[in-house]
Amino acid sequence: xxxxxxxxxxxxxxxxxxxxxxxxxxxxxxxxxxxxxxxxxxxxxxxxxxxxxxxxxxxxxxxxxxxxxxxxxxxxxxxxxxxxxxxxxxxxxxxxxxxxxxxxxxxxxxxxxxxxxxxxxxxxxxxxxxxxxxxxxxxxxxxxxxxxxxxxxxxxxxxxxxxxxxxxxxxxxxxxxxxxxxxxxxxxxxxxxxx
Amino acid sequence: xxxxxxxxxxxxxxxxxxxxxxxxxxxxxxxxxxxxxxxxxxxxxxxxxxxxxxxxxxxxxxxxxxxxxxxxxxxxxxxxxxxxxxxxxxxxxxxxxxxxxxxxxxxxxxxxxxxxxxxxxxxxxxxxxxxxxxxxxxxxxxxxxxxxxxxxxxxxxxxxxxxxxxxxxxxxxxxxxxxxxxxxxxxxxxxxxxxxxxxxxxxxxxxxxxxxxxxxxxx
Lengths: 195, 219
What we know:
The complex is a heterodimer. Chain A contains 6 helices and 5 strands; from the N terminus they run βαββββααααα. Chain A is an alpha+beta fold. In chain A, strands 2-3-1-4 form a 4-stranded antiparallel beta sheet, covered by helices on one side. In chain A, a hairpin with a 6-residue loop joins strand 2 and strand 3 (38-41). Chain A is elongated. Chain B has helices spanning 8-17, 26-49, 59-68, 75-104, 112-134, 139-154, 159-167, 174-201, and one strand spanning 19-20. The chains are: A alpha+beta, B mainly alpha. Chains A and B meet through strand 5, helix 2, helix 3, helix 4 and helix 6 of A and helix 1, strand 1, helix 2, helix 3 and helix 4 of B.
């Protein structure tokens, strides 16, 4: 920090400022060859020099560093760690409750040579199974291909939807189509799934 | 004394003492929830692998042993339950997140890479669930895997070859179980690590998100 003295200040004013600096535990040094008399605060937390602005001889306080950048957020330990530990406990409790009320089952041992019978598809494949069960036997391959193409369309959605900005109406067809496929899959999952 | 700006202590200090963002942002809470679930899956998966035997003669019996006898009949069962439900929750969370991105239109512009990586991650999670399901080697798991592999077989060009690699032959059988175990514990986790590395390279695009240290993402 630089303390700029008023024009016409003499040795007495410089001495006074240096003494006041020393009182708050700071050291200062007068810089030579300036149009006005200035004192450079050399050490310590320079905010302690702020009250010196009230002195008669002082014209201005000029910080030598940039504005203080306050870092947002909190330290990992203990604050963030504790928040995460609470989250972990909540998640674990939820999982224990789910395991308790709905434990994953274990059916009969697999019979590789047996009949498929009425095995149900996994829940996330039930939409697929439901969709394919709607198709005639000889079109299943086309159905699988169509599903793969839908997934590819999702993958290249940023290229398909070239709209910009937040206007939702412009994107309505895309979103409606996306939700149609998702909800359609969900609906088919409820009815389909038989092998 | 001068502070050392390198070395293990400095790395630790930098990691643990820099400000972390608050968890009140939905986006960050989701990220932490997913990380926590992945951690739980990894820990319970490793614990299950101590007792699991990936062969068609012993797989079913080893799962039954885990369910009935490990840890006096409750910790093995609980471990499998937690592993199963954590994977299901992760699938649902991932799907919901993609629906949110779809509805908000965040797949466009700067969110393009996130959308694609999100789809690949979700596909990986489904692959984990699919391969993991067969490991119990019970009737339902076997036939549902067989059904899904038959669908894959129908895809033109690479479908038959891919189904053959997954099956370990022309028919679903003991070789399929061995392959699925390899995929579940080796190949898919390696792909997961690769995806996590790719995720870490992507900048954040959420305009409401403050990065570590309070910076806003550069536009």
